[in-house]
């Protein structure tokens, strides 16, 4: 499948980002190198480093610092994936066995910690206090989001407001960091930095909303993950929240019971309930509303190829099905 057009603006820079990331695995410890090769052999969509580069392009600072920061963001994201796969006991990601399935939980956690330390090493080398403060202030919220999600596993009473808080922390925060970095590098005004923060947060929130629908409407070969895992792990995502709100009687009780006990064998019944309540339509509409807010944030900037690319990226986020 060809890459969306907005990649073309920074494809050469993304290649350099990949080189910077690969350089972080030149360790004297063979296992670190082996796991690094495994997890980066098949690249994902790389939306977060892409967002760093497009934001840097918007402010005319597509340089070595922005490339390093794009690598930092992707390293932090990869760390969260390694740790999440351990917490969730996941066996498949991007169509491949997860690192914890191949090498065990201990190795995955420790290599994740190694990646996190390499990310902060790259960051400190830039000698930019504002950027270091942004990461140090914001990254704890990513862990908070994961803990909140863990705390609410198998909780059928999680409401939409608290669901939003979880996904804004676990996903929106890193998108918002990525979006702000170009403005910080270019020393833009507080209003421009805030606009990019808002764009990134709404984009990341929409991204996670769509991601939460894919467990119920996509196919394993397109997502690279096992369908029904969210249910088995007891994740109360928006499709389930909406379906439970719209169901009553025996159907609602059965939905609640499936979530409480992580009954993957009830997956087809849940898909049927999600379809009959039009839960996916509701979630996608909510995601599009987030995208409208993201695009509104961009209106303070003059028209440019980079603003247009950020607009295309936003719509791609809600239109993707993998």
What does this 3D model show about the protein?
- The protein is mainly alpha-helical.
- The chain has a single domain, classed as Farnesyl Diphosphate Synthase, CATH 1.10.600.
- It is 75% helix and 1% strand.
- It is built from 16 helices and two strands.
- It has helices at residues 11-23, 30-41, 47-58, 64-88, 99-103, 105-125, 129-151, 160-185, 190-217, 220-223, 229-232, 238-246, 249-261, 267-276, 279-298, 305-319, and strands at residues 92-93, 96-97.
- Strands 1-2 form a two-stranded antiparallel ribbon.
- Helix 8 (160-185) crosses helix 9 and helix 15 (279-298) packs antiparallel against helix 16 (305-319).
- It is globular.
- It starts with 10 loop residues before the first helix and ends with a helix.
- The model has no long low-confidence stretch (mean pLDDT 92).
Count of β-strands: 2
Largest sheet: 2 strands, antiparallel
Report the span from N to C terminus: 12 Å
Strand content: under 5%
Q: Count of helical segments?
A: 16
Task: Provide a quick synopsis of the model.
The chain has 16 helices and 2 strands. With 322 residues, the protein is mostly helical. The longest helix is centred in the middle third of the chain and has 28 residues, at 190-217.
Task: Using brief descriptors, characterize the structure shown.
single chain; 322 residues; mainly alpha; Farnesyl Diphosphate Synthase; two-stranded antiparallel sheet; 16 helices; globular
What is the fold's blueprint, element by element?
Elements: H1 11-23, H2 30-41, H3 47-58, H4 64-88, E1 92-93, E2 96-97, H5 99-103, H6 105-125, H7 129-151, H8 160-185, H9 190-217, H10 220-223, H11 229-232, H12 238-246, H13 249-261, H14 267-276, H15 279-298, H16 305-319
Antiparallel strand pairs: 1-2
Helix pairs in contact: 1-4, 2-6, 3-4, 3-8, 3-16, 4-6, 4-8, 7-8, 8-9, 9-15, 9-16, 12-13, 12-14, 12-15, 15-16
